[in-house]
Request: fold
Amino acid sequence: MPNSQLHEQLDHVAFDELPDRAVFKERVLRTAIAKGLLDDRQLIAGFIDVDGVSRTITELKAAFPDHFAHTFAAKANAMTGSLAIVRDRGLGCEVASAGELQQALRVGFPPESIVYDEPAKTRQVLQFVIDKGVSFNIDNFQEFERVEEILGENEARSRIGFRINPQVGSGKISAMSTATDTSKFGVALSDPGNRERLVGLYCTRSWLTSMHTHIGSQGCSLDLMIHGIRKVVDLVLEINTAVGRRQISVIDIGGGLPVNFDCEVVTPTFAEYSAALRAAVPELFSGEFAVKTEFGRSIYAKNGFIAARVEYTKESGGRRIAIAHAGAQTATRTAFVPDLWTIRLSVFDSSGRARNGVAIEQDVAGPCCFAGDMLAYKRPLPLIEPGDYVMLHDTGAYYFSNPFYYNNLPPIAVIGAAEDTGRVSLDVWRRQQSLDDMLAVIG
Ligand SMILES: Cc1ncc(COP(=O)(O)O)c(C=O)c1O
Reply:
C-alpha cells in the first residue's frame, strides 16, 4: 500500500479520547505493521519517540539553572540513534566501559563532554581517557595511585575527582542502590580514616578538582538522593575550606531520578527534583560550582516501547496464557525480578488497533525456554488472540541496548519514530539480526 494511502487511513481514526502519548504509540504501531516492519517474520521491535526524548530534555534543561551540565548515562540506551538525539540537544555523555566510551566518541560527543565512571578501570583505559581529556571519577584509593602514576609530572587535561559513597542506605531495590554502607562503588565516606584521607589528598593534589556521587538508579526516593548529595557537598565545602580556595569547582550529582512504570503521567518530574534539591542543597544553585548530572532512565524510559507479536494462547491448569515474542531477551529484569520491574502492557489486534474488550486475568509469557520467562502474571487485559501484539510500555531505557542472548535470541530491532505534520515517520535504527549474524556473536 502506498504510504500516502496509509497515512490517510490512519488519520481517519478517532483517537481524541486517548492521552497524547498513548495516541502516538498506537499510531506508530499501526504504521509499523502497515509498512511490514512488524509481521510474522519481524516478530518484535522497540520504538523510540524521538520528539518525546527532545521534549524530555527540554523539561530537564528548564528545571535546572544554566550552570548545570547534563550528561546522559549511556548504559540506559547506548544506541547510536539515541545518543545522537542527546548530543544534538547539547547534553554530554556518561559512560562506564570502554565500549560505551568508544560509542560516545564515535557519535561525536566532544571528549570534554564525556564523563567516565567505570569502577574497574584498567591502566590502559585510564591512559586513554587521560590522553583524550575525558573527565573521570576515581573509584578507590588504589585507582588514585594508578592515576597519579600515569599523570606523572604532566598536567591533567581531564577533570578528575573521587566518587564518594555517602553511605545513606538503600532504596527499594538493593541491586540498584549504590550508597549503602557496603556498596561496591566509590570511597565509603564514614569508614574509619577515609574522610581525613580524602581531605589530605585533595589538599596536596591540585589536579583533584571535582567530586562525584550517584546514590542509586531506580527505587531511590528523592529524600535519599538529596540526603546523599548533601553529605557530599558538605565534604566539598570542608575540603575547599582546608585548601583555602575553591579547588573543587565541579560537583557531579549522578543520575537516578526514578521513573514510574504505572501510567503515562511522569512522576516525579525534573522540576520536582530540582525544587527539593534547591531547598536542601542551595550551594548547588548559587553558581559557585559547575554541577553535572547523569540521568539515564528518566530521559529515555517513558519515550520508548516494545511491541511483540503473540504466537499462541492456551490454558493450563486453569491458567490462561498468551505466548508472545518478548521475554527475557529484552525484558531481562522483568523476567527475573518481576515484582520489582513490573511493566504496563496493552493489547492490540494484528493491524495495531487497541483492543478495548472486557479485562480478564491472563498471564503473558515470553519465548524463552524457562518457566520464569514471563512478562506478567494474572494481568487484567482484553482477551489476547494469536496474531495480536502486546505493547511493553516505558521500556526506552535499559530494555533495548542490553540484550540477553538466552536461547540464541537476537537483540530486538529498534525504530526511531517521529510525527511530522500529523504523519508518522519511522527510521530503522537497528535491523533485526539475521540468524547468521546472531550465531557469529555467539561464536
Ligand atoms: C554512575 C552512574 N551514573 C548515572 C546512572 C544512571 O542512572 P539512571 O538511569 O537511574 O538515571 C547510573 C546507573 O547505574 C550510574 O551507575
Q: What stands out?
A: Residues 222-243 form the longest helix (22 residues). The longest strand covers residues 304-316.
